[in-house]
Amino acid sequence: MLLKQELIERLKRLQQMMSVHGLDSYVISSEENVWYLTNVTYKPEERPFFIIVPAKEKPILIVPKMEEKHLSKVIIDSKIISYWEYPSPVGGNWYDILQNTLKRYKRIGTETYIKSNILSKIYATEVVHVDLVDEIRKVKSPFELNLIKKTANLSDESMEKIFKNAYMGASVLEAFSLSKSIQTKMIKNKTFDPITTSLLTAVWPSPISSMPHSIPNLDDRLISGPNIAMSYLRINGYAAECERTFFLGKPKKEEEDYFKHMMNARNQALHILKAGVKASDIDAEAKNYLIKSGFKSNLLHRTGHGIGLRNHEGPWIAEGNDEILKENMVISIEPGIYFEGVGGYRHSDTVLVKKDGYELLTKFPVELEDVTITTSSLIARIKGKMIQLLLGL
């Protein structure tokens, strides 16, 4: 019943926003927004799935015939129309059904990123591109926050596993393999939806950690540091992330100084974070501190981004975005500095925006002494060596 009421409220908010924009109907075709409004997991491939939301009537779902029975479990009150296949003879194609369904509407809204092959089949007096569902998604309901907090807890648990299995000479493959234990746990608890779940545990060893979006070679090894660990999860539809810079053995004085500056920038951003503040001001607070500290040439990215159905979504915590943050938005805070050939320094947390401040949803320790690993597990070493031998690393 909780889920049904949640979906009803989402639909009401969408129709209210449609009224503000003067829309007769709204066409939804993106996989995540379809899931957000129906809770139906479906991979469209070449057979698209549409939700047509009229201004005042119940939604219309246009689905391939082979999915019609599957879609009968839709929780919200809706009308289901099926098309035969892709491709189909005239009259049986998805675009024939879509055009026939939309012909009574004059002012139709669509997502701004609607696929061109779909947009070319929508005929109306006026087509308005506006991301209404994406806007609704930015502010999380108590129902959603509960799910995000569960994912955040598992992100912390995954980070702890990375730390417990880190040792000098460990291959990055060992960190990648740790996400399997989270998946196994979910399967045992019967809480695993494979379509809306993705699990990534990874480590960028020094000096590769200076390139945040690089892909480590499987035989790359952990060294003294700075290494960056990532727990990047989406569980049953809702995401969270936790990242930590860590060292194997006592860091050098220079490494301690760089780490301190990264933490200072992080704390500067968190210090002003609350509802009513511009996203751009959060970014500027961290960025300006690092520039004043002499690290302008060591910056590679913004301070953060929104988190929800995806690990990366709006609001963007960047100087190019003057959006006002609202209570119950969920974002990342992750300013970083990077030194080519040496390594990177970045913590990332999943953070809830509150009326008068913030709440860290990922709580794995952040201080230098907490992320300095001076001992390693013998079991982790033995298991790691077995993996390396098995794969010929």
Can you offer a commentary on this structure?
The chain has eleven helices and 17 strands. It is α/β, with parallel strands linked by helices and 393 residues long. The protein folds into two domains: 2-138, Creatine Amidinohydrolase, Chain A, domain 1 (3-Layer(aba) Sandwich), CATH 3.40.350.10; 142-391, Creatine Amidinohydrolase, CATH 3.90.230.10. The strands form five sheets. A six-stranded mixed sheet has the order 4-3-2-1-5-6. A four-stranded mixed sheet has the order 7-8-9-17. Strand 15 (349-354) and strand 16 form a beta hairpin. Helix 9 (253-272) packs antiparallel against helix 10 (279-292). The mean pLDDT is 92.
Topology:
Layout: H1 2-20, E1 25-28, H2 31-38, E2 50-54, E3 60-64, E4 79-83, H3 94-102, E5 107-110, H4 116-119, E6 126-129, H5 132-138, H6 142-164, H7 172-177, H8 179-188, E7 198-204, E8 227-235, E9 238-248, H9 253-272, H10 279-292, E10 304-306, E11 313-317, E12 330-333, E13 336-339, E14 343-346, E15 349-354, E16 357-360, E17 372-373, H11 378-391
Parallel strand pairs: 1-5, 3-4, 5-6, 9-17
Antiparallel strand pairs: 1-2, 2-3, 7-8, 8-9, 10-11, 12-15, 13-14, 15-16
Helix pairs in contact: 9-10
